[in-house]
Amino acid sequence: MVPCWLKENNIVRLVGRSLRAFCFACFALFMVVESASALVRIKDIADLRGMRSNQLVGYGIVIGLNGSGDTMRNSPFTEQSLQSMLERMGVNVREASLNARNVAAVVVTAELPPFIGNGARIDVSVGSLGDAKSLQGGTLLVTPLMGADGNVYAVGQGSISISGFLAEGDASSLTQGVPTAGYVPNGALIEKTLPDYFSSMPQLVLELKNPDFKTAVRVTDAINAFSLNRYGMKLASELDYRSVQVQRPAGISSVRFVSQIEGLMVQPDTPARVVVDERTGTVVIGQNVRISTVAVTHGNLTVRVSERPEVSQPSPFSTQGETVVVPRTDIEVQQEDGQLQLIGGTDLQTLVRGLNRIGLKPSGIIAILQAIKQAGALQAALVVK
C-alpha cells in the first residue's frame, strides 16, 4: 500500500515537469515566430541589375481650360507653340495677335518600365510651364516623349486629372492642393522599346537596396543552399557589399530561375542608426542602436514677453498736454526642474523605456540624443534632417 504523501509528491513532481516542458515549448515557439517575422524575401531587398526604368520627358500644350490658362504676354512660348500647331493644321495665324486664355504650355514626364512592349500604356505627369492658374478640365494634345538619347519612345495624350482646385472672385480666392499639376492615367502609348538582353544573360547580378556586407553574405548562402539542393551545385558568389552574382544553370530560362530564387527568405542586417527630423519632431531609432550608460538631466527654459501698451491722457479741460501711448513690457522667465536619470541599454526596448522615464517631448528627445552623441555614448550613426 502506497502512502498518501508519496502519491501527492509524485503528482506535484509530474505537474512540475509538465509545466516546465510547456514553458520550454512556448519559449521555443516564440523564438521561431520572432525569427520568422524578421525574414524577408530576396525580391524585397534586392533588384536585378539591368531591370530599371528610364525617364521620358516632352513639351506639350493643354487646351480646353476655362479661362485659367497662360497669358500670351507673360508666356510667349505658349503663343509660339499655338501658332506652330495651327500652321501644321493649315491655319495661318502668323499676323494675328492671339489672346486665348484656355491654352497652357506644360512639361510632360513619364517612366518607361523595363520589358514593356509596343502598344502598351503608361501614366504620364503634367506640370504647367507658364503662368496658368489651373489645369482643371484640360486636355493634353499629342506630345512626343523622348529619352535621354533624344529618341521618341512614347506619345502622350488625354484628359488631365488634378487633385486640387482653384475658386476665385473679385475680392478673394481659394486654392486647395496644386491645381497646376496633374496626371493622365494610361495617357501614353509606347511606340519604341529598348533591347531585351535579359533572356541571353549568362549570369545575373542582384543589387541590394540597402548595401551591407552581412546581408550580401546571407543572400549568397540562401541561394547556394537552394541551388545545391535543387541543381547539385553552388551558383552564387558575393562581389561586394552591394552585389551578388548568380550563375544561371543550363536548361532553364532566366525568368523561371529568377522566380525560384526571388522567393527565398533571408534575414537582412541593418546598421545602427538614429534618424532625427527636427522640422516635424520625428525620431526613428534602429533596432541595433546601443547607448552606453550615461546620466542625463533636461529642464525646459521658457521666456515669455508680453506687450501691454497703455494710453496716457491729459487732465480734463487742460489746455496743455496730448494723448500718448506708453509701452508696457512684462518679461517672465520660467525654468522647470530637471532630475538626473540613468539611460543605457543593451537592446531597443530598454533604451525606449529609459527615454520614456524622463517624460520628454520629441524636441527634448532630439536634444538629448544629440548631446549623447557628442559625449560619445551613442553607439550609432546620428542622421539629422
TrEMBL record:
GO terms for cellular component: bacterial-type flagellum basal body, distal rod, P ring; outer membrane-bounded periplasmic space. The keyword Membrane does not apply. NCBIfam families: PRK05303.1, PRK12789.1. The basal body constitutes a major portion of the flagellar organelle and consists of four rings (L,P,S, and M) mounted on a central rod. PANTHER family: FLAGELLAR P-RING PERIPLASMIC PROTEIN FLGI (PTHR30381), FLAGELLAR P-RING PROTEIN (PTHR30381:SF0). Assembles around the rod to form the L-ring and probably protects the motor/basal body from shearing forces during rotation. This is Flagellar P-ring protein. It comes from Pseudovibrio axinellae. The lineage of its organism: Bacteria, Pseudomonadati, Pseudomonadota, Alphaproteobacteria, Hyphomicrobiales. The gene is flgI_2.
